[in-house]
Amino acid sequence: MENAWIIPLFPLLSFVILLLFGRRLKEASAFVGILLTLASFVYSMLVLFERFSAPTFKTEAVWLSIGDIQLTSGFEVNQLNALMLFIVSLVSFLVHIYSKGYMSGDERFSVFYAYLGLFTFAMLGLVLSPNLLQTYIFWELVGVGSFLLIGFYFYKEEAKAAAKKAFIMTRIGDAGLFIGMILLFWQVGSFEYDEIFRAVDKGTISTGMITLTAILIFAGAAGKSGQFPLHTWLPDAMEGPTPVSALIHAATMVAAGVYLVAALFPLFTASDTALMTVALVGAFTAIFAASIGLVQTDIKRVLAYSTVSQLGYMMLALGSAGYAAGIFHLMTHAFFKALLFLAAGSVIHAVHTQDIEKMGGLWKKMRLTGPLFLIGTLAISGVPLFSGFFSKDEILIAAWAHGHTVLFWLAVVSAFFTSFYMFRLFFMVFSGEPRTDISKVHEPPSAMTLPMVVLGILAVVSGYVNTPWFGTFLGDWLTEGNEALGNGHMEGSAWIMLVATVVSLLGIFLAWLIYGKKTLSRDWLAGSSSMTYSILYNKYYIDEFYQLSFVKIAKGISNFLRIFEAFFVEGIVKGIAGAVQGLGKTGAKQQDGQVQTYGAVAFFGLAVLIVIFALTGGYLL
Amino acid sequence: MDMKTFLSLEWEIMAPEFIILGIIILISLLDIFMSKRADRKVLGWIGIAGVIGAAVSLALLIDHSAASILYDTFRLDSFSKAFKLLLLIGAVLVLFLAVSYEPKEGIEYKGEFYYLFLAALLGAMMMASSGDLISLFTGLELLSISSYILAGMRKKHLLSNESAMKYVINGGISTAVTLFGMSYVYGLAGTTNLKAISTYLTRNLDEQHIYLLGLAFFMIFIGLSFKLASAPFHMWAPDVYEGAPTPVTAFLGVASKTAGFVLLVRVLLVIFLSVPSDSWPGSDPLLIKVQDYMAFLAGATMIIGNVIALRQRNVKRLFAYSSIAHAGYLLVAVATVSTLFETMWFYLLAYLFMNLGAFAVIQLLTEKADSEDISHFSGLYRRSPVLAVAMAIFILSLAGIPGTAGFIGKLNIFIGALITTPAHYVLASVMIAATIVSYYYYFGIMSQMFFRPQENGEKVMIQAGIGVVIGICAVGTILFGIMPNLALDFLHTNFDFTDLFQ
Fold this sequence. Notes:
Chain A is mainly alpha-helical and 621 residues long. Chain A is built from 26 helices and two strands. Helices cover 73% and strands 3% of the residues of chain A. The longest helix of chain A has 40 residues. Chain B is 73% helix and 1% strand. Chain B is built from 21 helices and two strands. In chain B, a hairpin with a 4-residue loop joins strand 1 and strand 2. The chains are: A mainly alpha (621), B mainly alpha (502). Chains A and B meet through helix 1, strand 1, helix 5, helix 6 and helix 26 of A and helix 7, helix 9, helix 10, helix 13 and helix 17 of B.
């Protein structure tokens, strides 16, 4: 564990090597990336196993001293960090392998692997950070990595726009995070997590300040984790290559927001308002995104909205003081959602379209992808015995136990939606008659199937580390030795589990009726309430709203400033120069840069300052 | 002063200046006697050797305790040593650029180029070391006048001529304003020695003179803002930066700006920090009273620089506005006064590396071209991955992205603004906002390099001299970004800035 700092360095090395020599290595770049991420995965696994028996390891050194303030940097391996290291390096490793097949033949193959390396480095660095500042630095770096990966097909206008949108939307949240961080620093005098928690414990920070900083930090988390209202970038980010979606938008970057809230959990629990905000936003996002997912026709977009919705679940868990439940779901979700994305990638690879209206009947053609996709679908729908069932159950219990009755039912309804739209997706893609020519469809190369099989197994078994039947090992371990994190497991009535099972099966049944057996007409949903349908299909018009409000306002401001600059600032300048030259002449000559103007501006500035100084200082009176 | 006392002075503390002076004389003589056709590059190499020699001699003086000679006109204190070190590092790098500089039409007077450049450097070093208004001013003028000619070095290039003309006229105005301000100080104190001024004014200041001192402060500050390229005396920068030969632009952006800040800080701290702002005892120093004005100018400078930069297509103009913006960040440190020395020193160090590195790349890409349009960067990653990665490092640093020296520099300033009492929240917020605006144009260059198809497919040849500069700057930018304490520890162990006031 003492050497855990080396874990992020492997992918960094891969990034540097590929950046400099990538063009010569060509497709061999994949091996560089795969081997180096394998190294970090193996190391992460060792660290995780060591952490089961050893206490938290933390080391720091002074990094920067400003006046009397000393900023430190270092790394920390606590339970959460060790688990995150494992998840991130595993998924990254699998995606590296998968990409070898998926990206094969791409002109910028090595660049893709270089970006993957950079992103993995940033993400691993993020989860090792022992203080807010370091977290923030890697947080931004993660943003840069995802910007590059989403915009990888930069010649596609949509991809470029999506990359930009992702960057800007998350930056809005980051501004909140930054302000929150600075406020905490101001109050505590340190960026250290431990110091902050100590100050919160001792009550040196006022409750109002705790609430404010926690909510500001949550804004950052919401941006990264695609929580309402900053979620719109995530579906658009599907323009990136599919392996990227599996890595960034299932298992790692979007989980960073959840991770941040978990890492600062004692800060959040100190303020009921902050916790409530997290729970509310989470629950609302869960049902909101799930309802949009009901009608999308792009395979990746359905998955994207389901990701947003599942992240909402995790936030709901954290907001209901269900620390262990949130992390547990983060883990299971990482596996089954990565699986779903990779399987979707395999489908897209085979049929060259993302429109599920044009798919169908692939089950017979894709003997491996089909069942794997089904496993993922069962897991996310919360069908008993699959991993998603256990983690979702924990979240529902947490919400109920914390007294959020309304939020609990919202979560139940979104669970119903989830199983419905996931099985709608499954039936439309794999069952029925093919809607296009699929004679050439075949399974992808083994580089792509192998990672899917691994994830498929994990999507089933990862739930058993924390079950009400065989023991809540994960939860107990996560909360061990830290009272503030709450119980590892909350006792819930059996009826909650029953309800969850029933709604999930109900959703599947309905989806089967409409899309599988086709007893019910498809228009039953679309036709009976076309108004609802079009609202959902258009994603509640959120993008349009942003377009109308923020973008217009921003454009307005920029126009105003331009006019202000052109007329007001230069106007003053021109006014003075005009005495010398006459207003008409200056207009044209302004661009040549009149020397006397420059001098005049300086002189004018000086005069104004002196006059103000004289007036405010009372020297003139 | 008779000959004996004259010779008994501690002349060795001026060793770096003497070395530079000697090299200037040597190069100018060589230039006269060399055959007309001989390559003047050798003079550049002599210059580089001389500057390195001066740096070594300065390094040998590093443990020397604070001393002054010639009636306290020349001071060797920690302040001057630390900043002269920056000037010399910057000068070596700029000379490397100058040696490799070959514009399309050629430069006729390359010999002059080197010794004028060294003369400018000498002026800057004198500014850093002066303890007297007179020697401060002569240093300033030596720097300025040499720079005016340097800006017009491309004699047959129209823009270069325009640039020199504008520079000299605006420089004249600024000099007049500065000098006028200084004359007030002299009038009130009756002496030109900084320390004597401070002692006299602290004891004998008439209440009615405070306003006059305030006037003097504003005039000196505005006059010097010309050298810093900060508001309201910033407008010359884009025109001059654009027209001047690229190495000269690099020099103006880095060395000249550093010298301006050094001079400003010395005058502000020695004179205006000791002068009371009111008649009753224990009142705030005048400098604290005018803090808000400086803060306002710092804010205005950041905003102007970053906002106007958004509209630039010409790379050198863009960097001129970016340089204005950076002057604004530095002024934040000046205005908030807290931990001023190390903050300013570190930022100037970081700025030296990132800006010179960027100018090296700009020079490489544009010197043969007719325009300096930003499209010269298009597809650079395809043409020369190493160059593109290096430029990306510089740009990220200028934008203040974590992992680079520029980030640490900004962080220092930012935290410095927050930890003083009263904390400057507004100024800190403006700084953040301005930084965010700057991402836009910095990333514009990035997207040209990485995302645009190349416009002209020619490979970029990297000359040895420029390669050295880019390499050193890239390493420096990253190294001090990851381990800033290397530089700060060096500063803390070797320099004790309080000897400024001794």
